[in-house]
Amino acid sequence: MNKIYICGNKKLDGAVDVQGSKNAALPIIAASLLNHQECVLTNCPDLKDVKAALEIIDRLGGKTAYQEHTAIIKAENIHRSDISDDLMASMRSSVLFLGPIISRTKKAVISYPGGCSIGLRPIDLHLKAFKQLGVLVEETGGHIYCSTEKIKSGKVNLIFPSVGATENIMMLAAVSNAEVIIANAAREPEILDLQNFLNKMGAKISGAGSETIRIIGVEKLNKVQYNIMADRIFAATVFCAAAACGGDVVVKGVVPEQLELMLSMLSGAGAEVTSGKDFVRIKCDKRISGLGKVMTSPYPGFPTDAQAIFMSSLLCAEGTTVFVENIFESRYKHVPELIKMGADIIVDGRLAVVSGCNFIQGAPVEAMDLRGGAALVVAGLSAIGDTVVTGLNHIDRGYEKIEDTFAHLGATIKRLE
User: Fold this and answer.
1) Edge-to-edge strand order for the sheet containing 292-295?
2) Between helices 232-245 and 260-268, what is the axis angle to 10°?
3) Interval 90-112 mean pLDDT
């Protein structure tokens, strides 16, 4: 069993390059199915989920290659319309292939997606939207069967600004004879990145980043090379580690505007934050303060993906922080592990009250999900003594060798077989 060993309580210092965004790469890889010509994706992160997404394309009849953060996808010979249960179970984002497969083959068969167990993440918003746009959907025997003769024009009003549903609708309608409007669309930067990718191939989509997205279907797409955006949650993870451990850290290759709220919160906690066109610097030479209340919400609000990571940065803060998790109902699975390290946390439903303590102690802990696992690494970096983190299969879904990132910043951290 792989594990990460950390000897904590050391300041971090230096500069790191941000990795490509996991949450942008996965829908972009799925959208490559819409193109009969070659797609070359640069700045594509080396992650378990990315490899699973590429394997889905291979099994559908496409051909993929991956080397040095570049994925090459050739999907001209897609001949299958089903995704195997094992790949569906491997990651939540497998559902993003549903729209492209239906668009490409006029039918699809999938089981329900897997991924991190952080609570109910129903795909009913996806399916309801598909039905509105002319897709016949049947759910039976643990599988979802979809078919259509053509995509219908129409307006889809999402009752919640779901990122996945927004992306799936965009991909379903991009190559069609339909004109589709998404109201109450998700506004995350990754949505804009998907729009930019599709448009670079010849799609006609506008409005990403706002509450209304318009898709005018086109007949076909063209060969493309595209650079995937920076990973803002990776950047936040490094920032939170710097705030927890102290030190002086620069993350290069980011878009500061996409991190504005999180950076404002770190500044409010007492970290010194400076930024330029494509970098952010976090300097922290004193004990940070609690943040009062942190509430997760859709972008431009505080991201649920950063909740656990911020919690770890505030374990030894001066004062109390109350976290309110509004997106997923089971996203506190990291809390019992943090308590093993001496953290003072009380959970009541969707609330978690973190009372800052003088120090936390290293301990053996297990990652239960992706972001919770990253939070345990951040906690281990700031703890006194040794921490061993297991459950790396979760962490490796979203971080490229997380131990190398922090070792580069001066931490004593390594992966053990």
Assistant:
1) 292-295, 320-324, 351-355, 344-348
2) 10
3) 91
Strand intervals (E) in 184-257: 204-206, 212-216, 224-227, 247-252
126-161 b/e (C-beta count within 10 Å ≥ 16 → b): bbbbbeebbbebeeeeeebbbebeebbbeebebeeb
> Does residue 99 register a pLDDT over 50?
yes
Question: Across the chain, which distance is largest between two alpha carbons, in Å?
Answer: 64
Encoded amino acid at 322, one letter: V
First to last CA, the chain: 6
48-60 vs 22-31: helix axis angle to the nearest 10? 10
Q: Is the bond preceding residue 189 a cis peptide, omega within 30 degrees?
A: no
Write down the pLDDT at residue 122: 66
Predicted confidence (pLDDT) at residue 120 exceeds the cutoff of 60: no
Cα separation, 320 vs 152, in Å, equals 52
Phi/psi at 274 (nearest 5 deg)? -130, 155
Report whether pLDDT(111) > 90.
Answer: no
Edge-first strand order for the sheet with 204-206 is 154-157, 179-183, 212-216, 204-206
Based on its alpha-carbon atoms, the radius of gyration of the chain, rounded to whole angstroms, reads: 21
In the predicted structure, residue 130 carries a pLDDT above the cut 70: yes
**Among candidates 384, 345, 337, 390, which has minimal Cα distance to 361?**
384
Domains and CATH numbers, the chain: 3-19+230-416 (3.65.10.10), 22-227 (3.65.10.10)
Mean pLDDT of the chain: 95
DSSP 151: P
Secondary structure, 3-state, 356-416: CCCCCECCEEECCCHHHHHHHHHHHHHCECEEEEECHHHHCCCCCCHHHHHHHCCCEEEEE
CA distance 246 to 282: 9
Residues 6+ apart with CB under 8 A from 102: 108, 130, 135, 146, 147, 148, 172
Q: Which residues are catalytic?
A: 116
DSSP 201: T
